[in-house]
């Protein structure tokens, strides 16, 4: 029969929920790399060459092999589940592009703050930004060769994070590692949203 329940169920197409996640952090910490390694579409990049003229401003210590920098944003997409798709927006890392952050942050569910333990102070501004706007975030320490490994609790203390903020270790070049971080961000943001809907006990 054409209009039976079973035929209707088969036809049902679930429109996926799409969520916007920011990938932020200091200059050269691996944001573009992370979006690129996890994206299932060819990521949109807005890279410009680092020039001699930028040398006094662009601190390349620790990322001497870096030749380009993000000037507007990175964009990528990952399907976490059939019904859950993330749109990823990588922020520019340099201070002179800060004015773009508010545009990028609009409507975002949560954020990843990538951190490099050799230059941890570079992610202070991103942590402050999300704390101030109450955007849920997870810190992901991107492990570079030659960088000293610290326990995540040390990183948490150095960044003075709230207990609810997770600190994970990742490799921005590794798809499954970045995916795990994104899952953690989504779970954290959804938990926080659920908590804020709970009636306050009196
Ligand atoms: N060893 C190592 N190198 C990495 C890793 N992630 C990124 N890199 C390298 O570090 C450099 C910086 O990476 P990007 O992804 O451009 O960093 P970014 O945070 O987007 O930089 P900006 O947009 O300029 O702020 C590149 O040369 C990468 O190849 C990592 O996990 N390990
Ligand atoms: Mg970049």
UniProtKB/TrEMBL annotation:
The keyword Hydrolase applies. One of its GO terms (molecular function) is hydrolase activity. InterPro entries: Gliding_Motility_GTPase, Gpn, P-loop_NTPase. Keywords: GTP-binding, Hydrolase, Nucleotide-binding. Signal peptide: none annotated. It comes from the Bacteria. Belongs to the GPN-loop GTPase family. This is ATP/GTP-binding protein. It comes from Streptomyces griseus subsp. griseus (strain JCM 4626 / CBS 651.72 / NBRC 13350 / KCC S-0626 / ISP 5235).
């Amino acid at each position: 029969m054409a209009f039976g329940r079973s035929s209707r169920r088969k036809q049902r197409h679930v429109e996926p929920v799409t969520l916007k996640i920011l990938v932020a952090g200091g200059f050269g910490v691996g944001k573009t790399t992370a979006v690129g390694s996890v994206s299932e579409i060819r990521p949109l990049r807005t890279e410009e060459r680092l020039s001699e003229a930028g040398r006094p401003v662009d601190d390349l210590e620790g990322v001497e092999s870096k030749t380009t920098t993000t000037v507007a944003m990175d964009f990528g997409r990952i399907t976490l589940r059939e019904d859950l798709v993330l749109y990823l927006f990588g922020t520019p890392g340099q201070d002179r592009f800060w004015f773009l952050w508010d545009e990028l942050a609009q409507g975002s569910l949560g954020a990843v703050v990538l951190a490099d333990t050799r230059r941890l102070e570079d992610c202070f501004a991103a942590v402050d930004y999300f704390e101030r706007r109450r955007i849920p975030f997870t810190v992901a320490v991107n492990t570079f060769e030659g960088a000293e490994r610290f326990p995540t609790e040390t990183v948490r203390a150095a960044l003075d994070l709230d207990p609810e903020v997770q600190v994970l270790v990742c490799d921005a070049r590794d798809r499954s590692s970045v995916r795990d971080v994104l899952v953690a961000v989504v779970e954290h943001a959804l938990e926080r949203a659920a908590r804020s809907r709970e009636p306050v006990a009196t």
